[in-house]
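INPUT
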Amino acid sequence: MSMVRAVRSQSGLSGRVDWTYVGAVAGLVIAGSLAMLSAASTTSFYSSILQKHFIALTLGVTLFTLTLAFNYQVFQDQSKFMYGLAILIVAATLILGRISRGQRSWIHLFGFSFQPAEMARTLVILALADFLDRRARRIGDLSTLLLALGICGPVMVLVLKQPDFSTTLTFVPAIFGMLFAAGADLFQLVAIFGFGGVAISVPLIYTICQLRYPLAAAHSLPGMILATSRMGFATLVAIGIFCAIGLIVWRISSWMRVQIKPAAFAAIPILLSAALLSGIVVHRQLKGYQRNRFVAWIAPQSDVQGAAYNVIQSQIAVGSGGMWGKGLFSGTQSQLGFLPERHTDFVFANLGEEMGFWGTSLILGLYMILLWRIVAAARLARDRYGYLVCAGLASTLAFQLTLNVGMCLGLMPVAGVPLPLVSYGGSSLLVTLWTLGIVANIYARRYALL
Amino acid sequence: MNTRGAPIPVERLEILWYVIAAAGLVLGLRLAQMQLVQSAEWRLAAERNRSQMIHQNAPRGRIYDRHGTAVATNAPAFSLIFLPGKDRRRSDLKPLAEELARQLSRDPAELLESLEQAVREESAIRIAENLPTQTFFRLSELKTLYPGVDLIKEARRYYPFGRFASHLIGYMGKMSQREWRERKPKGYRVDSRTGRLGLEKIFEDELRGRDGGLRMEVDAQGRLKRKLEEIPWEAGSNIHLTIDAAVQKAADEGLRATATGRGAAVAIDPRNGDLLAMSSQPDFDPNAFLSTDPDEVKSTVVDLSEFNNAIAGAYPPGSTFKPIVGLAALSEGRATVEDSVFCPGYYELGGRTFLCWEHKGHKRVSWLMGLAQSCDVYFYTMGLRTGGAAIERYARAFGLGQKTNLPAFKGEKSGHLFGPDTRKKSGRNWWYDGDTLNLAIGQGELTVTPLQMAIAIAAFANRGSVWRPRYTQKIVYADGRPEYSPKSERLGLVPAKESAWDAVQRGLEVVISSGTGGGAKIAGLIVAGKTGTAQNPHGEDHAWFVVYAAKPGEPASIAIAVLVENGGHGGSTAAPVARRMIFAHFGMQDPAAPLPPPVKKPLPVTPLPVLPHGALR
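OUTPUT
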């Protein structure tokens, strides 16, 4: 019971807790629970959902409070353990996990099931923050950047192996946000993440061309892009053009006596070419359902019964809610089963239908307050470690919010990313509350005196 | 406080915050756009999603005869419908199609195709219509097994007399894809039935009611959840005909009983041109098109004879043309009733021999005997005296060679007038005496329709009034518009002397009382007519009989033309049909006929409940 004593000994703590932040969290949990419970009311295992949700909520609130009780710097001290734990749980999932919906992403222990990927993400953030703090003086070096990626890479690869593409995707903004906030060299950062971005967008562009111009002539631009999938002559030509442009720009700049490192000119074409090649590889590796999600995003009208069904039904749900909504438990889209995944990934659409604009803007507003307070916590943090942890969490949370809400509103492709604190999911709720507890802790201990 | 010496780049955090805020702003704006600006459209989409309209066919307007007997009405029927769910998979449809095919004895591939169409179009379809009540409970089981299958009660067309005035009333059928696209704006659905022939087609707009329906809430599987709204149907407008069901029935049955069973019969009221009966054989049972047994529908369609002999069949009139020749001769003063002619059985003209039908010859005949015995030689002589041009003029005055302007009916033929004038118009200038002889006995190129002959004989009855046939007594509109009843229309008057009318009418009466038309003699009535046996190059002679009848002291109230294709002698084949019709018209019992079979009463028509929902959960 040393923890209880610790809380008592720091009697001034409650005065330093960010109550706006706690209020936003509480508001999200309450509003989210209402929406989620309404959406789940038509499922056949409603009572089981209710039970699991409230157990997870109770545990989560306890964890939030407990996390607040001790100094967060413990996490920095134990960062190697944190990292080891992250690797351990995702590896264990791959070995011990049970397959459900084609994914091996659940661990069943002592009658409880747990999805470790989100917890691994928070652990990676904690470990990475420690690493970047140590490398503060050499933050501009390429080696720092590469090592940071080297730290996160194994965990991400293991999660991708499940295969859980969406959760892997949520690692990216956390890492980028932390590197960016830590002060990494912008050129290197943009180059590396640009590389990744191109690698992802190439299959996207390819899919667009396939959908919009399936019969494009070979000499037209879409036709050339379609030809790249064969990794043939067109790709080599594209790489050649990149190199030539780089060379020409370098010559011009040297004539104009502009002082720019020649390496930069070499880097741009090499990176772009590599990105293009990797894009092709990614495109060939992309699974059928992932491609369908792209299709559903790009051309939602193309196949209503198929992949785009979810997108359209979700938009109908949100739009038909109007200003005041149809009332809790009486949304036709969700209660009659038109809205898919209505208590998990599409819970925001259900909320939009039943609570209308005031409900959705309330949730969005609470989220913005939450993010604002996390950023404030970062700014006020007593050390670089706290600053980085908050920046990473804000980035990943904002990314999840954008992806999930954007998906419900038809702005983003369908990715299986839940809305934290709102979507049903016991382990997600538990981990999110614990993570937010760390932020509260960082804020509460913003003065070095404590 | 910097633990590792290097300063914390807080300005980077600011940028990060701006990016996050911008993302939030975009989401907020999109929310406002969808939920505040476009919400009406999305709400409409949600409404379309959750509700399914189950249409119920409104009862069509009824068709009555002149005495108010319903000849086309409605009966309650069950229809098996299928509501496609929103997230239905193709593979779910196959077992359903197989089960339905077994229950309804239909082709599973065909059923599967229509089920798939329903899923594609996202609208309810009728799998089977007009199901008999007995199958209701057996089929009710299906709806518990397969979501989306349901039974509804609605109105179907019912023709209580069955095979009755088929070509006049018409039948109901499905539309072709092209027709449906044209009619879609008028509120027709893909499985709506429309009038395909006759009055059902002509009065489609009037007869058709406004379909009602149930707007049901459905879930994503297509299961009906609850009723949202009931839209009551509106029945169509009723139409009262001038047809007399009894006369029509006599005509249909009489023709059917003849040797060949093919022909036409038309009855007209000579006082105003009202059509009393119009029959064409072979006919069909319009109920068969609405049968639940697809084989029966198929065979009906295959055997269907849409050809209406009464208006579209052109036949040489034969001897029934002789009264017109006689009227022309007498009225033009080319002959008197006393003038007699010797008939040796043949007539020689310029080395050619024209035979009389009675090869033994009629000896010496004058007008009455000439007409009564239908002596060809007498009419050869009269024809030559009168001349082809005058005969043609009179024939035209009786309306031959022109359409009778029967309102709205398609496919009416004008027949072909035969005479020097007509021939000149077709570019041929010759006209020989031999042609006059052929014309005088109603042969040669002369062809007429049974309807034209009915109007002509009616003109003999009323002394010259050529009526436009009228079949609509009144239309009683369902929407409260004032009744519509077309007026009788006289198209022309045959200019002939009163003495000539007297002589011809007298002659026509003698035909019945002591001539070839004895088969139509009826005690207590004045019956006047003419038989005809028209030579026909394609086979057996066509049998004709034209007749009018009156109660003593009253003007004639019925004029009939009967044609039996290849029936042989008019007096023996066609006259009995007319006789039946006259008896039916005057409401008399034929003493010569064997006791008629007990009249089969049409099935009682139960009135439809306004909104049946017993069939729904």
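end of record. Chain B touches chain A through 47 residues (CB under 8 Å).
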